[in-house]
């Protein structure tokens, strides 16, 4: 209900628009005039119009307004009341009025895939939008994009720190490069696991893959360090590669199994499930590949063949 004031009538009565607005607000919303103390609580004392006057909007023109001289007049004598239609709540996003459309994907479909397909179909609608209007994709895709941007911002610094730590530990560029090359071995297991469990490769799965690369490089570092230690002890390089792999087989497999078993409860989560599944598959496959690829890669880098066997 819009109240259009008659300014001439208000001047004759001696009341102001602010005073009239406070009276109308007090009649419907209520005005706090005092407070009471009840134990440790102090509830407010609110005055407003009786219930029958507040719920029946047709009685608004008959709302009595007190004048400074002690008399009362009806609101309808100093204002014209007009019913209009308007939005009760205007939702805003980044200070812009926004309509948000939400939907649930059917069973067997991924929300990100459905959103991308719908966004592609919206291109025709976007071209016909008036100036100042736009259609944006939110939800999982938007959150994933924000997360990927934050990771991309810190990724160069992370790589510098990883390379520096590997160089500090191995003291050789060839060894450091060997460890870095084995980092992507987990992608095979990640792909297989996500396909088997029908889970999307979103932001959390990407975080799991990044963490997985660190686990793989740790296993590689342990194995390479053991081989170097045996070589420095006087063992032939070919023999050191085989014996170090055999000795480290059990601890590497046990730690990988412990990590996989620890991720099983997390795999049931709707949010962290893709990350857990990606890491479980990546750790399993990468551990097996590490025990095969790293010895062969070490032999290739050091140019060791079976002819060097004692």
Kindly report the name of the CATH homologous superfamily of the largest domain: Multidrug efflux transporter AcrB transmembrane domain
CATH class of the largest domain: Mainly Alpha
Query: What are the segments in which pLDDT stays under 50 over at least 5 consecutive residues?
Result: none
Q: Helices and strands, in N-to-C order?
A: EHHEEHEEEEEHHHHHHHH
CATH architecture of the largest domain: Up-down Bundle
What is the CA-CA span between the terminal residues? 98 Å
Side by side, the strands of the main sheet go: 1-6
Give the % helix.
55-70%
Query: Helical stretch count?
Result: 11
CATH domain topology of the largest domain: Multidrug efflux transporter AcrB transmembrane fold
Describe the structure.
The protein is mainly alpha-helical. It has three domains: 2-82, Multidrug efflux transporter AcrB TolC docking domain, DN and DC subdomains, CATH 3.30.2090.10; 92-127, no CATH class; 141-308, Multidrug efflux transporter AcrB transmembrane domain (Multidrug efflux transporter AcrB transmembrane fold, Up-down Bundle), CATH 1.20.1640.10. The chain contains eleven helices and eight strands. A two-stranded antiparallel ribbon has the order 1-6. A two-stranded antiparallel sheet has the order 2-3. It has a two-stranded antiparallel ribbon with strand order 4-5. A hairpin with a 5-residue loop joins β4 (64-66) and β5. α6 packs antiparallel against α7 (173-181) and α9 packs antiparallel against α10 (237-263). The longest helix is centred in the middle third of the chain and has 32 residues, at 139-170. The N and C termini lie far apart (98 Å). The model has no long low-confidence stretch (mean pLDDT 84).
């Amino acid at each position: 209900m819009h109240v259009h004031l008659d300014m001439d009538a208000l001047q004759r009565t001696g009341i102001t628009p602010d005073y009239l607005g406070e009276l109308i607000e007090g009649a419907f919303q209520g005005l706090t005039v005092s407070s009471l103390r009840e134990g440790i609580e102090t509830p407010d004392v609110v005055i407003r119009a009786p219930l029958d006057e507040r719920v029946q909007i047709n009685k608004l023109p008959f709302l009595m307004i007190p004048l400074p001289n002690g008399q009362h007049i009806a609101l309808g004598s100093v204002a014209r009341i007009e019913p209009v239609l308007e939005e009760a709540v205007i939702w805003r996003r980044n200070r812009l009025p926004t309509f948000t459309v939400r939907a649930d994907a059917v069973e067997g479909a991924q929300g990100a895939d459905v959103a991308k397909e719908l966004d592609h179909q919206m291109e025709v609608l976007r071209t016909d939008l008036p100036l100042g209007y736009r259609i944006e994709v939110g939800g999982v895709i938007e959150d994933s994009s924000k997360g990927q941007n934050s990771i991309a911002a810190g990724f160069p610094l992370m790589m510098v720190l990883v390379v520096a730590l590997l160089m500090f530990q191995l003291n050789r560029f060839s060894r450091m490069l060997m460890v870095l090359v084995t980092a992507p071995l987990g992608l095979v297991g990640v792909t297989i696991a996500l396909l088997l469990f029908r889970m999307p490769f979103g932001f959390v799965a990407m975080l799991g893959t990044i963490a997985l690369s660190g686990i793989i490089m740790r296993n590689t570092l342990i194995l390479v360090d053991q081989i170097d230690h045996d070589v420095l002890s006087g063992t032939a390089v070919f023999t050191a590669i085989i014996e170090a792999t055999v000795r480290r087989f059990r601890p590497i497999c046990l730690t990988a199994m412990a990590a996989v078993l620890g991720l099983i409860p997390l795999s049931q989560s709707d949010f962290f499930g893709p990350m857990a599944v990606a890491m479980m598959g990546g750790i399993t496959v990468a551990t097996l590949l590490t025990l095969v690829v790293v010895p062969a890669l070490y032999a290739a880098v050091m140019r060791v063949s079976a002819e060097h066997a004692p």
